[in-house]
Amino acid sequence: MRERLADEIGKALGRILETAGDREPLPGLTVEPPRQKDHGDFACNGAMLLAKRLGRPPREIAESLIAELGDAGGLLARAEVAGPGFVNLWLAGDRWQALLLSILRAGPDYGRSDVGKDQPLQVEFVSANPTGPLSTGHGRQAILGDCIARLLGNAGYDVTREYYFNNGGRQMRVLGESVRARYLERLGRAAPPAEAALKDEDAAWPAELGGLPVVFPRDGYQGDYIGEIAQQLIDECGESLVDEPGDGRFRAEAERTIFAEIRATLDALGIAFDVFFSEASLYEDGKIEETLAALRETGLVYEEGGAVWMRFSELGLDRERVLVKSSGEPTYLLPDVAYHREKFERGFVRVIDVQGADHKDQGPFVKAAVQALSLDPERVEFVFHEFVTLSSGGETIKQSTRKATFITVDELLEEVGPDVFRLFMVQRRSESHLDFDLDLAKEQDWTKNPAYYLQYAHARTHGIERQAEARGVPMPDPDAVESGRLDLPEELELIRKLGEFPETVLRAAETRAPHHVAYYLRDVAGLWNPYIQDKDRHGILTEDAELTAARLALTLAVRIVLARGLALLGMSAPERM
RNA sequence: GCCCCCGUAGCUCAGUUGGAUAGAGCACCGGUUUCCUAAACCGGGUGUCGCAUGUUCGAGUCAUGCCGGGGGCGCCA
């Protein structure tokens, strides 16, 4: 409807320009719902755009536009000039009611789009190495990535969700050593490091305490889960592993256990990945060597101090980077480039990497390397999200990764459940810091907790249906509804808001910004909840059968939008609460 | 020192890619009602949009510079 109107206006403006002998196209034309309701259903800035080119006052041009536009092929009831030269437009009376019926006919497909044309696209997110449970920061990324994937799927793309992980390297060796240390400590064959030494990075780190060796690594993982894995090994293998190296059985067992826990956490969040991609496979398949060879062909690779470098300054970046250390081991950058090369080979039209703010500096290097390999860097896109803080009672809860005092996703889920968790994590734009208000999240009152506020609005549509059923009132057939009976301002406003759903979710997909959906749903629920509450004025079930059917139709349309919107955020849409 | 992000109501934050009188939630203060689900609904906002220049019909939005907060700048990942 908006497109058709914009089209008519574009044509009318074209005719005005043509009369003045101007055939250039006009940029920046907007036809959008104004902030103020009394400024009409849509407002258009066209006259102001032409003012300079035609050398006439904008309000005068606006008058010409209205005359030229007429009723826009039956779409318009009224148009008037306002402010500096806006043209405010009111749609012909039955347009909103027609919109309601089209929502009902589309049903669960309302808001879907095929702009993606089934093109393959990849969203990579979480990508946490299996060294410990998912933190709240990972949790934000998990929800953000998952919602972006859902939105792109809704926009008609063939989306692959991918989790990239590295189960080799130094981190994992340290992990294995940490487990081994706890294993030996529990068997009384090693001593744990002193508490003071653990807390203070500068404190002395004795090799022996009370006659026992201290084997816990200086930069080891201190979380309780390490001890639990060690205990598990004691239960299964007893003392048979005392001579096992940390990098062997201990490391493997830790990886297996931790990965299982990560997957269970993701499962609890309602997130399923299509591909778990291991960095190690890039070595096994020779992709690392291939990529290095390809990079050498760019002529930007050189050796210095026994290491292999790439001259990124030639690509407009501020410093050079090491690809292969003097030890012969690649840095993380080389496999990352190889990985992106591999993504391109899989034919994705677009790969979206969702990453934490601490990776912001890396993106340009990967892009530059991709471009140097003659691949289109525009196909790689990064979505960075800022960190998460938790607060309660107005105080920020202190967290530290190193000291393992961070709150895990699992712990948070136990407190608030996946639906609340998801909404809170997606309620902010990704570039903003996110303060997770634990008190509000735990709030059970649906009027206060924003997640329940949305879900309850949906449940109420079912409550109304149950009530109708109890009274023997059938749910309406969309083709037989007299939607013209819906003529109260709040009803029209609600329908108008429902009409914004498709463009809202499409914009959210295109800008990789799921928070738009959260805010939109809040708006819908914020119209719907008061509407049905004011029973005297517009009870749904009335004496008037025709009016009742129309309002039940509105109820169903609201349900369609809320259910679909909640699904796009990965939240459940309960029928009763 | 350099790079990236943020700065909007008491608090937490949106702001439809430059539009009209800048909006929500939480909190707070009043009023009405006892309902289809826990009580709900209605009303109540005088904000230097961090500061300053600039761009233009028009700036919270764009550019530049400063101030404040966060992140990053390793042969760690």
Record the SSE blueprint.
Elements (H helix, E strand, L loop, with lengths): L1 H18 L11 E2 L9 E3 L1 H9 L3 H12 L6 E7 L3 E6 L3 H12 L13 E5 L11 H19 L3 E8 L3 H18 L8 H5 L8 E2 L2 E2 L10 H14 L8 H24 L5 E4 H6 L2 H10 L4 E4 L2 E4 L10 E4 L8 H13 L4 E7 L6 H10 L7 E6 L2 E5 L2 E3 L11 H18 L7 E4 H5 L7 H21 L18 H11 L1 H10 L4 H19 L1 H4 L6 H24 L9
Helix pairs in contact: 1-2, 1-3, 2-3, 4-17, 4-21, 5-14, 5-18, 6-8, 6-9, 8-9, 11-12, 12-13, 16-19, 16-21, 17-19, 17-21, 18-19, 19-21
The protein binds one RNA strand of 77 nucleotides through α2, α6, β11, α16 and α18.
Characteristic key phrases:
alpha/beta, Isoleucyl-tRNA Synthetase, Domain 1, Rossmann fold, globular, 13% strand, 4-stranded antiparallel sheet, Gyrase A, domain 2, RNA-binding, 577 residues, 5-stranded parallel sheet
Largest sheet entry: 5 strands, parallel
- N-to-C span: 36 Å
Tally of discrete structural domains: 4
State the helix count: 21
